[in-house]
Amino acid sequence: MAADCNFHGSDELVSQGIEDFLFSRDLFPLGLHLIAVFLFGRRVFGSFCSSMPCVRPDPADKDAEPFVEIDPTGRYGRYDDLLGAGAVKRVYRGFDQEEGIEVAWNQVKLRIFREDQPMMDRLFAEVRLLRSLRHENIITLYNVWTDDEGNTLNFITEVCTSGNLREYRKRHRQVSIKALKKWSRQILMGLDYLHNHEPCIIHRDLNCSNVFINGNIGQVKIGDLGLAAIVGKSHAAHSILGTPEFMAPELYEEDYTELVDIYSFGMCVLEMVTREIPYSECDSVAKIYRKVTAGLRPAAMDKVKDPEVKAFIERCLAKPRARPSASELLRDPFFLFLDDDSYNAALHPPSLPQPRPRPLPADAAHISSRRIA
């Protein structure tokens, strides 16, 4: 079982700092359709030109799509395409020149933090730790730096091709229980990694809008770590943060452990199965609070017809002392006969035999290497 976790220090620094500005929900706010426009718009344009008389952009023109900014290492470039914006943060389409992949370039305005050095110190300590996280089911933070001239904190994260799980599930209504189990197990694997990390990390705002998916291989990743509590070795964190429909009862009491994430995970499974946000029958946060603290289940539970699925969700929503850890749930019979061969093969394709080197032609000495700009 994962070690219990405690929070030491002022949680206000987390709630005022990272929770609102660092990994906020605007990382993927526009959905797959708009991201696709940004990523593939020029291909569509080129395809159109192939059948219509029009002026083609010159492939040799290096300024056809110039970077408007490059990170200090020279590896990441930022385009002017805005993917999302919040009160203090903007998310742009970026490009990793070394790996040749699209990334998200996030810019956080630091003017609010400049007058509070302790909060700045805590913010950067948190960022350094989050940068160290490496797991296939956690959104990767690639690089972080500050721009003193622009007074911004910049960080690069990966982009999932199919957006968040909530919107993906809405687009694809016919999904088997087997597929839902695969998604669920991957979320648990990410939570297990966070909870067993040293120091322990409690997500505190896990829900289907901040779980992301690469739909072509069914790979799921936890993101939006903006409310995460990085805690020590004792027993409880102390602050009320999160999305009300997914918050465990003990979160409202401001005395909780990493097991609040398991409760939220159970609500995620419920939403995945029913395509309904828990407690959608409530028209106010106050009504949700009363139901949650009274131990009343959301109306969506009545829509779960599979007894195995319902029992698994109930196990996740149990009272803290009876609630299992992520490690324990991964060994639950719910996942016993799950075959993930296609998922594993997509992530780890078998190595192909290397071709034998061919002898160089006689005039090889006249062949020179050329760097492509």
Structural features, described:
By secondary structure, the chain is α+β, with helices and mostly antiparallel strands. It has 2 domains: 11-45 and 58-158, Phosphorylase Kinase, domain 1 (2-Layer Sandwich), CATH 3.30.200; 165-338, Transferase(Phosphotransferase), domain 1 (Orthogonal Bundle). The protein has helices at residues 11-16, 18-21, 31-51, 117-131, 165-171, 177-195, 249-252, 260-274, 285-293, 307-316, 326-330, 341-347, and strands spanning 69-70, 76-85, 89-96, 101-109, 141-147, 152-158, 200-202, 211-214, 219-222, 229-231. It has a 6-stranded antiparallel β-sheet with strand order 1-2-3-4-6-5, with helices on one face. Strands 7-10 form a two-stranded antiparallel sheet. Strands 8-9 form a two-stranded antiparallel ribbon. α6 packs antiparallel against α8 and α8 (260-274) runs antiparallel to α10 (307-316). It is globular, with a radius of gyration of 23 Å. The N and C termini lie far apart (52 Å). The model is unreliable at 6-57, 343-347 and 357-373 (pLDDT under 50).
List the helices and strands and how they pair.
Elements: H1 11-16, H2 18-21, H3 31-51, E1 69-70, E2 76-85, E3 89-96, E4 101-109, H4 117-131, E5 141-147, E6 152-158, H5 165-171, H6 177-195, E7 200-202, E8 211-214, E9 219-222, E10 229-231, H7 249-252, H8 260-274, H9 285-293, H10 307-316, H11 326-330, H12 341-347
Antiparallel strand pairs: 1-2, 2-3, 3-4, 4-6, 5-6, 7-10, 8-9
Helix pairs in contact: 6-8, 8-10
